Structures are given as C-alpha cells and as structure tokens.
Amino acid sequence: MINRVFPADAGLFERAVRTFRGATGGGRAYLGSPDALAYVASDGRDISGWCWGYHLIRPDNSSMLYLHQLEVAEPYRGQGIGRALLSAFMRAGAQAGATRMFLTTGEANAAARSLYESVGGGLAEQGPTVSYWFRLNPGDV
C-alpha cells in the first residue's frame, strides 16, 4: 500500500527514515515543512519503499517538483513499488499545480534510469553542468 505521509503520520515516516537512512528524529520536522511531499510503501508491518522531495514554488508564479530520493528495499524490487511511489509523487505535484519535476540519479543506476525513462523522463538538455555540495556551519559563513 502506498501512503502519502503528513505530520500526523510521523511514526510511519520515522520507520521509513530508519529503514532507508539508518537515522532517527528528523521525520517530524521534515513533514512539518509546507513544501514537503513524501510517500511510504508498506504492508502495515514492513516498510518496502519510500520517496520524498519538495513542491517548489517559483517567483514567476509557477511551481515544480524535486524528487530527492526514491528507494525500494531489496526484497521488494521488481514488483512495481518504485513505479507506484513515483506515480503517486508526480500525481500529487500535478494536482498542486506543478508543471515539471526534476531529480538526480547516478549515471550507472540502470534500474532507476529505466524507471524514470519509462514514465516519460528525459535527460536534462541544459548543456554541461556541474553540481556543488556545501557543508553549512553557522560559524563558518
């Protein structure tokens, strides 16, 4: 079963965070963000997958989705769970007014790329780009 998670579902979301990130404690804060969008796949007992990201409002009065992570636990792969999570995420964004979605995946992640291409995703054609990561520490900036 695919469930959209809201602040009231923090317990379910925290279980997904533990399952896929090995961490605890941040799920409630994330779900409290007005731009958060997350789904969890579960049979009621086991967490089989999740996806999460953001609905981003832009200054030109348009909006888009950013899918930060989609993951299905190894024993559940190949059963359509990733596709169901992705479809639910995209449907919710479209219903909220988003007209585009973006994500990043590893070049060698053939399974993910196949899924994204099968639902109409295309490689970004913005020319050569590079990505930068910054660690932000309040005393350093």
UniProtKB/TrEMBL annotation:
SUPFAM superfamilies: Acyl-CoA N-acyltransferases (Nat). This is GNAT family N-acetyltransferase. It comes from the Bacteria. Pfam families: Acetyltransf_1. Residues 1-141 form the N-acetyltransferase domain. Gene3D superfamilies: 3.40.630.30. InterPro entries: Acyl_CoA_acyltransferase, GNAT_dom.
